[in-house]
Every structure is written in C-alpha cells, then in structure tokens.
Design a protein that fits this description.
The protein is mainly beta. Helix content is 5%, strand content 41%.
C-alpha cells in the first residue's frame, strides 16, 4: 500500500505459446520474461480475433490449439498473490492475439536443422520491432516473411557505426528499409522468434569490410524487402527480454564449404531512369548497362521508395515522369513481364543521375536493342 509504483506489474507485447487448454474457456500461455520461464492465464473473452474480442461463451478449444504462438499484454495475477494462484500462473493476459505468420515460420525453422538453410542471407528488409539497443527486421523470402534479430553494435548508418550509448530509435523507425547480412539461428530459447541473426545491418553504403573468407558464395541467399521508409541508453545488448548486462556474442559466419548447394537467385544493383509508367501501380525502368545500351526492368509501387517514403498507396503517374533517375535492386525473372523485375526502387537526395544519353525507342517487351 503506500506506493503507486507499478514498475514490473504490467508487461506488453510478450510472445508465448499455448501450453494447456482448460475446459471450457481458459488457456495457459508459457513465455520467457526476465530470463525465467513464466505462465499467464488467458480467458477466452480476452482473446482478440478479427479485431474484436471473442464471445465469452465460446470454447477456448475452438479458438486456439496447444502450441499456437500468442502475443499478449498482461499484468501480475492478483488472485492469491504472486505465485500463489490456483493455476500456478504469475501473470494474467489482459488481451491476446495470434502471433504474426513470420513468428510461426521462424519457430518452425528454428526447430529444424541450420544445414537446411543457406549459411548466409544478404538482402533488404524492413524494421518491424525496435528497442533501445536491439531490434527485429523482417524480409520476404519467396512470399514468406522471415525475422532477423539484430543488435545496435551491428548497425551502421551511412558507414558510421552506432555509438555504444546511442538508442536505436534515434536513427531507425518501424518500417524503415535496411540492408543486412545474417546467419541462421536455431535457438528455441529465443523470445523474439527470429530464425536469423544479423552479422551486419546498414543504411546507405555498405561499410567497407572484407567479404567473409572461405564462404561458398554459391550458397548465399539474396533477398529483398518490400516496404518501409528511410527517414536503454546503456550499452548492454542481450538477446533475452530481461535487460541483462550480459552481451551475446554474434554467431560466426560458417566456414564449411561442403554444404549442399541449393537454388540461388541472381540479384543485381543498378542505376537507370524511368522509361514509362504503365498504370498507377507499376512501370518500366531503363537500366543503363553502358552508353546507349539498356535493359528493361519492371517495377511495382509497393517496392518503391521516394526519399524514404514507401509509395504503395501512391499513384506512380503523379510521382514520376519519364527520365527520372532511380537506383534499384532487381532479380532475373523467367515468369515476369520483363527479364528483370525490381525488388526495390529508391529515389534519394544523393542518388547519382545516369549520364545523359539518347533514350531508346520503346517496343513491345522493352526497349529496342536491349541486352540480356
């Protein structure tokens, strides 16, 4: 009594799994908090489905099953006092919802063998969760969102490493596109449900490090993200949610070159200019290969960023005109409208404009005399 200090009483954005279903309308969520295994009681009417709370007369078994990943906000369970409830739960879920599909995929990947995945992933993603000295980025891999855990010590902004006491939210926001290199992570004791760990993450130009030695580059997975906007003050960086001062060591990039080769995707970076806006959502870029030699690159607005702003909800015809310079990342495509399809298109203040040259005439399927 005598104090209104609620520090530690409430918890938010916690991820756990359904451990037990108690007929008719209860479930037990198991999760990690402050480095310890904890449990929370969930009542069916506290579960949110399609944006609304589930009716209290519903059966919990109709809504969730054992093993489902759940996110929730909660507080210390008042009944019986901390640790003395009849359900042996220290926490009570105030509201809960099923976790994003990316967390489900990450859990499945971490339960499998790391050898089934490429030893290194290089690409572009977007910031999905951010904390003072660590965060989560998400990238799209063949239509599936996957999660990458990163620490502030691995972050470079325009080739400058983040300061040891600088908070990530001072330089990054949710939705920001970033580039990254990551290695597989298979720890099931992972409160962020990330199946990858970033060995490097950056905005702007890649820091001038040497490439990892001895790595079989044929097994590198190149991926790109789909959205975003460029736009504890302490130095501890722990993988857990407990705020421990124990820093985790970044996994070393595997040196084993005997990993079976999997399918790879040809991905390039390039500069060009807008050839034509087809409709409000897509268009063509002329990729400048060399003077007066061009390649058509198809692009979609959901992968396009203007000074950091994602254009997924904007009319491209109102944003671009023919000849506007752009930078892009593209992948070779056997099924797209052109041989190359952009995974990301960027217009930035510092973007170099391609040399002035005569634009090629546009024919069906792309510019006349294109290469490749």
């Amino acid at each position: 009594m005598g104090t209104n200090d609620n520090t530690g009483r409430y918890i938010f954005g916690i991820t756990g799994t359904i451990k037990e279903i108690i007929y008719p309308s209860k479930a037990i969520i198991c999760f990690k908090y402050n480095g310890k295994d904890e449990k929370a009681i969930l009542l069916v009417h506290k579960l949110i489905s399609d944006g609304v709370n589930v009716d209290e007369h519903k059966l919990m078994s109709d809504m969730v099953k054992i093993g489902d990943i759940i996110e929730f906000d909660g507080h210390i369970y008042d009944k019986g006092g901390f640790g003395n409830s009849k359900d042996r739960c220290n926490y009570y879920a105030m509201r809960a919802w099923k976790a994003s599909q990316s967390k489900v995929i990450s859990k499945e990947q971490m339960m499998g063998s790391k050898s089934a995945r490429p030893p290194l992933t290089i690409g572009t993603g977007w910031i999905s969760e951010i904390f003072p000295r660590k965060g989560v980025l998400t990238f799209n891999n063949n239509g599936q969102d996957e999660r990458v855990l990163f620490l502030a010590s691995k972050v470079y902004i325009f080739e400058k490493r983040l300061g040891t006491k600088q908070s990530l939210d001072q330089v990054l926001s949710e939705g920001d596109p970033v580039q990254f290199e990551a290695v597989p992570q298979d720890s099931n004791d992972n409160p962020y449900y990330c199946s990858w760990f970033a060995s490097l993450i950056w905005k702007g130009k890649r820091p001038p490090f040497e490439e990892p030695a001895g790595l079989n580059t044929a097994n590198i997975l190149s991926v790109t993200g789909r959205r975003g906007s460029i736009g504890s003050t302490g130095s501890s960086e722990s993988i857990s949610t407990d705020g421990s001062t124990d820093s985790i060591s970044s996994p070393l990039i595997p040196r084993d070159t005997s990993i079976p080769q999997g399918p790879i995707e040809q991905v390039i970076r390039g500069k060009g200019f807008i050839a034509r806006i087809i409709d409000e959502s897509c268009g063509l870029i002329w990729w400048v290969l060399r003077p007066n030699h061009f390649q058509s690159v198809w692009f979609d607005r959901k992968h396009t960023f203007l000074f950091g702003m994602n254009l997924s909800n904007h009319d491209l015809g109102e944003t671009f005109k023919q000849g506007d310079p752009v930078n892009f990342i593209a992948a070779r495509s056997s099924s797209g409208p052109t041989n190359w399809v952009a995974r990301q298109v960027l217009v930035t203040d510092s973007g170099a404009q391609p040399d002035k040259m005569v634009s090629p005439g546009l024919a069906v399927g792309g510019p006349i005399g294109i290469l490749g």
